[in-house]
Amino acid sequence: MAEELPILVAAVTDEKGRELEEASRLGRTMWVPLEREPARPGPHRLEVYTASSDAPLRLLAEPLGTTSEHGSALRLYPWEESAPETAAPLPAPPAAATDPFVGRAIAGGRFEILSRLGEGSIGAVYSARHTGLGNLVAVKVLHMAFQQDVEFCRRFYAEALALSRLDHANLVHIYDFGQEPDGLLYLSMAFVEGVTLRAMQRSERTFEVPRIVSLMLEVSAGLGHAHGRGLIHRDVKPDNVMVVTKEDDDGHRVERVKVLDFGFAVPPSVSGAVAQRLAGTPVYMSPEQCLGEELDARSDVYACGIMMYELATGTVPFLARDAESIRRMHVSMPAPPVAATRPDVDPRFDALVRRALAKSRADRHPSMQEFRAELKSLLTPAGAPPPLSVRDGGSRPSMPVVATVPPPPSSRPSTADWLEDRAAGYARFMDVARTTPAVEELTKDPHGWLGDLVRERDRRAFIQRLAELDGAVRVLAQRGDAATLLRVSVIVSGLADRVRSDEAARDALAGVARLFVDPELLGPIAERVLTQQDEGSAAAELIAGARVAGAYALYGARTRLAVDPRARIAFVTTMKSLGDSAAPVLRAALARLFEQATSGQHRAATELAEDLLFGVPRADDEVIGQLVMKFASSPVASLCRAAARASTRVWGERARPLLLHLVQHEDDGVCVAAIVGLREIDAVDLEAVAIIGAQVAAGRVRTRQLHAAIAGALQAASSSASAEAAALLQRLGGS
């Protein structure tokens, strides 16, 4: 039987207990006041007692050998998910019994979720089966808090699309992404069997410099590839580095690295605990990240410096009892030298780490290429001449890497955070606005160009044509050429079976197909729908084909065209036609807009909320139903009217009590909407006739519209109320 882990005990306040539990989810280090200090290194079971809990909170804790007046420095992990085999927690119930996602099919049935693998700062990761190919994949399901933020969801598509286009041996390939009608956001990716660098460090404690360099060369190679395509990781740490051990071509066991879990940009609308999770892990955050500034490649360089320090010494350079203190240390306190803990380390290693951890990003390596170049120099014995470049045939030293540093971000206009800046939505693909031969040919003769693509039998030429099509689609989208894009989407969809057995061609085709589910790229197409510039139905078909992403594109276009009355009518009609696909957008947007819309101080927010309510499709959705109830009780009459109309579509007969209440509203327009709703669901019964009769008796029928609505409802009264309805109708006619 395996040896039980040693137990550590801490008695803390309720608030401190919650902090420790949150820290364990992120693999963070905390100061913990222990009743007895750890007697040995290695993993321990930490039992945390609080006044409000009868049973202790159990966590996995790794002592870092540092104590202070605040307690012992412990790196914390969840007990159930991270406990090693030597731990003996109570058996957990089967995953299928406790996890609602296990056994679920997503992405139109393409993936079946099998089991939960773990949880990170952004979401939980599951193993899944690709039902078409039969192979194992990993699926990340984002936390519900992100599903509830409409701006995050809309931008998720653009960033996930960019991630899916990364192709490097040291990065995990993204296969697919999207959002289910119930709001679930997911990414599917290659399944990697290995161990995290964090798990290796737990058992090995510290690493020798050559091994650190070998691992970090691969980490930085993957990050450099992403940086070259405009993506910053934002959360580089040992937990997000998977190490796979395999044999090379010569039969030697080698370690290969995969960098995991690229973070997503934090939109202005995200705040509080959600923003903290997205922002990164405090002990690895750069000074500019701690200050909430725009990030660039040098922020990831800083995190790599923290990792190198930790791999060499067994601890991170900055530890404190709370996240805010750690952030202050990153901003103002110099990192202690590696040599203070490891006097045997190569001085050049220490100098590299010091440069990577410079407080000013201008003093760090300007790119991962330069960082890698200095890493490689550590493989050469001190004092030896630098190696010659292989590219140059060994005749002369290699040229230095010329690094480019992104320009500082321009200041954002001071607009309300719920209304998007007109230019921001298209920023990601404005740089592809130039004309290409493929664009011109597709515009003049789409059937000819696409026919050549379909007939192409040379594999390499076929993939090259897809690369040309990829760029052309972006330009056509910016131009709003819906007709040509619709033809392209039909052909791309039809080619899926042809490339099923060719991985490279399949990935290239999937890359083009994913462009049609990017809300930002579809933005100009959605604007054409709302301004009714499309003579046919091509733009509307593209939006409908994009499903949930199309609904986000429509929402983004509506915020940009807030003052155009044509846009409001077209928005309602199109959103309603999307059916279930619109549900995630409606949930998130209505929840976000409620306070601004009902305050009466933001006309644009009120009108947008009205349009969203009118755009609610017929669907039995409990969350949307509860939001409709909230808007129905607001002090803004126009919102009550829209909520009354939405209630019948989302709740059907269940809307009856709400509508009976709204019949008595002081605003005639709200009364009309409620009466029309009762008629729609065949609920003009005895109680409804009595309530309507009370309004008539009180002289509340002041407008021709309300008079007509009451008359129509009474004529459609149920058989049980027909006599009372006829009498009331006669009285109404004589009034």
Beta strands, count: 14
Helix count from the secondary structure assignment: 31
Strand content: 5-15%
The CATH homologous superfamily of the domain at 195-377 is termed: Transferase(Phosphotransferase) domain 1
Shape: globular
Low-confidence stretches: 81-97, 267-278, 388-433
Write a concise keyword list for the protein shown above.
Phosphorylase Kinase, domain 1, alpha+beta, about 725 residues, Transferase(Phosphotransferase), domain 1, Thrombin, subunit H, five-stranded mixed β-sheet, six-stranded antiparallel β-sheet, 31 helices
Give an overview in words.
The chain has 735 residues and is an alpha+beta fold. Among the domains are: 7-82, Thrombin, subunit H (Beta Barrel), CATH 2.40.10; 95-190, 2-Layer Sandwich (Phosphorylase Kinase, domain 1), CATH 3.30.200.20; 195-377, Orthogonal Bundle (Transferase(Phosphotransferase), domain 1), CATH 1.10.510; 620-735, no CATH class. Helices cover 47% and strands 12% of the residues. The protein is built from 31 helices and 14 strands. The strands form 3 sheets. Strands 6-7-8-9-11-10 form a 6-stranded antiparallel sheet. Strands 1-3-4-5-2 form a 5-stranded mixed sheet. It has a 3-stranded antiparallel sheet with strand order 12-13-14. α19 crosses α22 (565-577). The protein is globular. Residues 81-97, 267-278 and 388-433 have low confidence and may be disordered.
